[in-house]
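Researcher: Go.
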Amino acid sequence: MMNSTNMRRVGFFAVACIAISQMVTGCIGSSPATRYYAFSSDDFINDNDGDLRISVGPFEIPDDLNRPQIVIRDQGTQLMVLKSDRWAEPLNEAITRHINRDLNNQFSAGLFYQFPSVTDVSPDYKIRGRIYNFEANTDGTVVLRVQWAVLDREGNFVVEPQGETFSTTVSSTDDIAAVTGAMDSLLSEFALKIAAELGLSLIHIS
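Model: Structure:
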């Protein structure tokens, strides 16, 4: 038969277990839901009638940006990694796909395809680049800083390496949908620049 002392011990243990269980449940329940973001999915027209075949990518990205989590720069060297706000696909692949789609929709003299590709055996031209910055700052500035070039199949520069900086602003970096939308727009600006420079170079070559 259990005496009163043992009964009190059992009761205390039961209460403690219930309290711990509620604390654990509360911690799990309070975790914010993960949100996923992707760049725009405009139609891929791909009705180009040119004979040129142009490979797009790769675009190298710093490891601190090429991660599942979206990154915000805090006015200097500090980066804030947003655990609950993530890219829906690897960022380097999303960037190349976006630029490839825009070029196909803007440039009628050839067919662009994303690197790597089963058809990437001997393209007429290759668009390559390195991205140095592609993030929002806490002051609302969103920046894309990139160096890029176009090479022919022999490895000669058709468009010499050049640095570009594109920027825009959002009202608040707390609005991640606005941030990713601004980044989407900067990639479209970059693709327009590539199309313009490539078009001029091909005119000079011909």
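Model: Strands lie at 35-37, 52-60, 69-73, 79-87, 110-114, 125-137, 141-152, 157-169.
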